[in-house]
Amino acid sequence: MTRVDVIVAVRNEEQSIPVFLDRIAALQLPEGVDLRVIFVEDSSTDGTRPLLRRLANEAPAVSYYTLAQGFGQGPAVVFGLSRSTADAMITMDVDGSHPAAVIPEMIREYLGGAQVVQCVRRTLSNRRVHRRLGAAAFQLVARLLTGVDTTEQNIFYRLISGSVARELLQHPRYWRWLRFPLPRQPGALFKVSIDTEERVYGESKYSVRRLVNLAIDGTLSLMPTARLVTLLGIAGVAAILLYHNGLWVPALAAVGGVTWVLRRYAALYRPDVLQQMQIAECGNVAGSATAGAARAGGAARLR
């Protein structure tokens, strides 16, 4: 029996979770696959926590962790990966923006040998104009600074094997933005083009400030160290030239910018983030390694 865990970080998703589980439960899974859902709850103020308690009591395929302190969506997803002992894990959003209907195809590709099945957003409906413009600007700037084509991982909806998950857990720099170098060995990577919508249920938790911070961390996480050193070296030389020409204010600003970038870059490498994430509550966890969650070859019994 092959076990697959769906890892979802949730915050104030009382409205979204029941619909999400209904869609998961309706899936026709490949023969011999057990499917579970692990929720990692982060700082909810609505009825998400009591809902998760009830679901975990009613459905053996649903488990959850409530974090004592919020660290953001990326680290919460990574926390879920660190707690899973499944053969493969699927990371996705619960708000309807990631279509659950492609999960059986993702699992089939994994069973066929793929180590990463990456969904690639083909279309996106209902996104506001300022969000579209912001995303396009980020992709352009990130490509120029990092040399990495971010459109290949324009969403973090993917299936990864247990071995890939363990490798990801060794590299904290990728935890915040949930993008990482994809495998290039023949047959290890399979891409699935999907049509998506902007959040279908509930409200976005991302303010403009959070989106900007995420964009900065995402860019730094993808930037090769040699490229970063080169760019900062150029900025340092510019600061020296400005200072020698009497422009000490912009020179100090340049030095401050270099220092800020270095500190932010170093923070992405902190390996103790998972150790800092304390569990306030959990449910249906003890049996997560062995409990069967789906009928082999049938619909997943999640509700």
Write the layout of secondary structure elements.
Elements: E1 2-10, H1 16-25, E2 33-42, H2 48-58, E3 62-67, H3 73-83, E4 88-91, H4 103-111, E5 116-125, H5 129-146, E6 158-161, H6 162-168, E7 189-197, H7 208-222, H8 225-244, H9 248-267, H10 273-276, E8 279-283
Parallel strand pairs: 1-2, 1-4, 2-3, 5-7
Antiparallel strand pairs: 3-8, 4-6, 5-6
Question: What would you say this structure looks like, in words?
Answer:
By secondary structure, the chain is α/β, with parallel strands linked by helices. The chain has a domain at 2-205 and 277-283: Spore Coat Polysaccharide Biosynthesis Protein SpsA, Chain A (Alpha-Beta Complex), CATH 3.90.550.10. It is built from ten helices and eight strands. The protein has helices at residues 16-25, 48-58, 73-83, 103-111, 129-146, 162-168, 208-222, 225-244, 248-267, 273-276, and strands at 2-10, 33-42, 62-67, 88-91, 116-125, 158-161, 189-197, 279-283. Strands 7-5-6-4-1-2-3-8 form an eight-stranded mixed beta sheet. Strand 1, helix 1 (16-25) and strand 2 form a beta-alpha-beta unit. The two termini are 21 Å apart. Residues 287-303 have low confidence and may be disordered.
